[in-house]
Every structure is written in C-alpha cells, then in structure tokens.
User: What shape does this take?
Amino acid sequence: TQERARFTNAHPRSAALAARARDHLLFGVPLHWMNDWGTPFALHVDHASGAQVTDVDGHTLVDFCLGDTGAMFGHSPAPVADAVTRQATRGYTTMLATEDAAVVGEQLAQRFGLPVWQFAMSATDANRYIVRWLRAATGRKKILVFNGCYHGTIEDVFVDLVDGRPVQRDSLLGQVHNLLDTTVVVEFNDLAALDAALAAGDVACVLAEPVMTNIGMVLPEPGFWAEAQKIIRRHGTLLVMDETHTISTGPGGYAHAHGIAADALVLGKPVGGGVPCAVYGMSAELAARAERAKREAPPGHSGIGTTLTGNMLAMAAMRAALTEVMTPAAYGHMLALAQRLAAGLREVIARHGLPWCVTQVGARIEFQFCPTPPGNGSEADRILDGELEHLIHLGLLNRGVMITPFHNMMLVCPQTTDEHVAQLIGALDEVLTQITQK
Ligand code: PLP
Assistant: This one.
C-alpha cells in the first residue's frame, strides 16, 4: 500500500493519461501487458534512449526490461536511428524488393548457419509462418512444444501439461479449434517423453527455445539437445529453434554456438534494433521443399506473409542493426556485465538469507524463488509468485529501476554501465529489506 501510494504521488501525469486512455483503448493501454507492473495505473513513457527511459513525469529509470528484449541493443541505437532517419523521406512500403533486404539475407546467412531467410513483422508471425511452411513441406499436421513455452501469441503453442495430461490453456481467448488435435506437449529435458510423442507420428516439427526463457529460465541438461536432435531426426521431424530471446547469448545465437543443427530458426524483437520486424531462416533442403510445396499448391493467394513484410523501413533498420549494432564488441560488453550483475544479485540475495537462485544466459539474468534452477516447465510453474514479483517490480520502479514485468528477468544492453548495475543492486537491497521485515 505504501509503495502504491508513493508511486501515485510521484506520477500525476501518468495517472491523468491512464484515465484519459481508459475509455478509448481496450484495457486502457496499447497492449494489456502494459498493466502488468504492479502499479496502480499504467506508467506512461515520454522517451527512451540507450539504457534509460524517461516517463511523462520526468523520472529517468535505468531500464533492465529493454522492451522485453525488443531493445536488447539499447533504445534507438545510433546506427539504426541514422538508417531510419535516412529512410524517413524515401518511402516505407512499396511491395518492391530493396538492396537492404538482399544485404540482410547475406548477413543472416553468415551469422546463423542457415542459408535461406524470409521476413515477418513479429516473432509471433515468424513462428506462425515457419510452422505453416513446415506443415506444407512435410505433409504432417502436428507440432510438438515443451510445457511452459511461449513463442508469441501463435495459438498452436498454448497447450500445457496439467498433472501430466495435455490441456488447452484456459486463458486462450477466442480460440475455436481444438489444439489438442494438432499440438503435442512434453516436458523440457524429458528425452523419453519426446521420443514417445514423436513415435506416435504425424509431427511436422518441434518448436522450441534452446533455453526456455518464458516461464522463468529452464536450462537444458547437459547432452539434452545432442540426444534430442538424434531423436527428432530419427522420426523425420524438423527442428525449429526460436532464438528471439537467446540471440542475447552471442552474435550467432545459442543453437549455432552449441552445435544444435536446427532446420529452421526464428529471430524477432531485437533483430531490427527495436524497429518492428522479424525473420525466419531455413536449411537449403527445407527451402527447396518449401518452394516445391508452394509451386505444387493450387493457384491463388496461398502465400505466407503480409503486405508490410519486408517494408523498407524495417529492412533499413535491420541492415544497420546487423552490420553496425550487433557487433562482437557489443556482445562482449553485455556478456561481461551480465556476469557481474549475476554475481551482485547472488551476493545481495544471500545477504538477505533468501533461498533464491540466479540464472544467467547471455545478457539475460533472472532470480528465481527456489534454491536451484527448475528443470522443466512444471517445476518452473510451481515456484512462480506473481504477488511477490509485483512487490519487487513496484519497489524497484519507485527507486528508479525497471526490470521485466514477467518473472524477475533482467537484460543488459551495450549502454548499460556498472553504475546502472550498482543502482539496481542498491534498489533491490532496499526492497528486499522491506519484504523480509514484513
Ligand atoms: N518467441 C519467443 C521466445 C518470445 O519470448 C516471444 C515474446 O516474448 C515471441 C516469440 C513473440 O514475440 P512478439 O511478441 O514480438 O511477436
């Protein structure tokens, strides 16, 4: 109550805008997740730059949320801002190809170990499209996902295991198809279950993050992916790696660096330096199968993509992001700083005597309410505590620091400094003192 009052007193302009938007925006915000911070009303931003956002009441926050990775390389990185500014008077949407797109295709092929790429407007779209291509290419209907996964609002993935049985997620609004007919779900790290599920047949692809990041972090056990790949291949199923978040682990993503030979790859959010766009890549063999499927399909608008796919603004931004922003030097800074942040978190959590673990994967860091990291989606789900998370998020916001509103996830970007990290640790120290004294 005290923290909510403190927030209300400090944010009169946000409060006024929230009241104004309430009547004409569904949920009163552009996206309902913007209400998920534990604040009494939505925080409204004025501008964002580098590792900071400034709200409409003039508070500048150190940003460890970074648009839930959309701004993984900082807000408005200079080369992307320049490219967007140059493109601003040269057209946005023409339905014609650009040089930028050709360069982006080359760049992606060099970095991520897959030769053929195509564009989408968001990671959700990219996942939806690649799943359709794989169904078309294999002639199989089903997909397999891991329990607790999230790949955007692509409906196919909203199936959970409850007491070991698959159920369609309750919160799946407006979905009329029975997903249990076409989506198979097993626990992450469970090779026997994966094998059995694929043996039942008709599974076009496994859609997975190499490290689960959306139910809190769940790491692959040593050897999991090496064995999983063999099983997937043995059943003639294809593997799609969704690296929308794990692109934070290095310039070529996680899978390529860890010897996971995916048939397809999805990258969203940060790949345009924060400008809306996404991509998916394919092996040469898969691309040939996809092209054949398209050729052999009945004539008509059966293509996969939207009018704005490959728009000129997104292509210019992505070219700048790939060639000038997502550099080895930027990654070097992010990964070293993420390690220092993780160490600082462990120290402050230990000082408060809390049995929480800290997991770091690339530039993403999380503390979880359990002594050792969970091994699968069910274990991760059991330790979630939304009320405690809100207390922490709100307490941090009141102290000038913002972390992701989902779980206790943080991300560092090339502009994040050791001073920012110290500010986060100091703020968390105060918040934990308050919580543990209650
Ligand atoms: N894939 C993963 C792994 C994600 O975490 C998300 C969003 O959080 C998406 C895809 C969807 O991204 P978007 O909401 O930008 O479509």
